[in-house]
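Worked problem 6 (solution included).
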Amino acid sequence: MKQCFIYIVVFLISLSAKASFILLPMDETAQQNHLKAYGITYWCLNKDYKASWLLNYRGGSFLLPDADEIRKECKIRGVSFEILSDSEEISILDEISSPSQNMESVILEKAPKIAVYTPKGKQPWDDAVTLVLTYAEIPFTPIYDEEVLSDQLLLYDWLHLHHEDFTGQYGKFYAAYKNTPWYIEQKKDSEALAAKLGYSKVSQEKGAVAKKIRDFVIGGGFMFAMCSATDSFDISLTADGVDICEAMFDGDASEPNYQSKLNYGNSFAFKDFTLERRPEQYEFSDIDMTTKRRITPEKDYFTLMEYSAKWDPIPSMLCQNHTQLVKGFMGQTTSFDSALIKSNVLIMGVCELNGEARYIHGEKGKGMFTFFGGHDPEDFQHQVGDPPTVLDLHPNSPGYRLILNNVLFPAAKKKKLKT
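Solution. The predicted structure is:
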């Protein structure tokens, strides 16, 4: 009888210790591949597994159910994971739920459908988001003007804007590249596409695209943009119906006094900015801080803001990282002049040396947008024709983690933003 009792006790203990959960730790030392951990989480959601995002717990870890195929997938992709028993999972969630802890467990409901606005024929390394989605093995659909103007954005939850110029000025590359074959070909292709879609000017066609994207966000979509797609998008909306392009871009002169005709009420994030009229200047406006900043590469860092995970889960999700200090990087639009950012927009990342904003977020209608300055988080000063970044060399990149935070947060069960 005594021996039977011992067997029963051992059996019950073994049941209670049975592994029921997988933790993908996201702190600095425990995770060998932060970027692919997002891909594992997305893969689980795509297979209808339940998942939770543990905000501020060990760098923003992910909690998944224990399954052989998840373990196998983690091993294949080189993602570190830990096996938790029921009791260990309960203990972690109890710690997170404590009012004294700035932590929260957010349920991830379903894998968002992802679109990347990018020209046909672009390679993954031409754009940091396309590059990291490919590396993390997160599926996406490339779309461009024809798809946007035919309302195909309705098929997606999340949209990234490739480093686009929505003003019709071909990226302001005129001074340096006007005689190069790729620039001439790009201009020719853009004009042909505009004509095919029924527009007499590229600026008009790009303006129509910008307004469709605006409507997508207002209707409840999530939009993420980097580099020149941030300010040029807002400029296009602000200059709706106003010709701001010089003759070398669209064949005729810009409107007289066009600066006074801008409608800042149309923009998402920026206000009171002044456009750069000179076509030979590689700049759209004074929103960007690239030419105004005096920061050496070794001192170029920005700090992520800290939010209440329980009260402000959205910015908390967007700022999850294994470090609060992120290495800076440049682009055509490197950062944003904080004085030109609307008061209802959150500045989530700031360079302390000059107060410039690097990472901002806001709401528009029923949807949300995030703007991230710079071209490539692991290429400090990316130039035209530079070789692609190899993410196998940067699997723990804090800057690329911020991109993937934006990819995954539309999956979260919605809670109202308090800040």
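Discussion: Residues 202-218 form the longest helix (17 residues).
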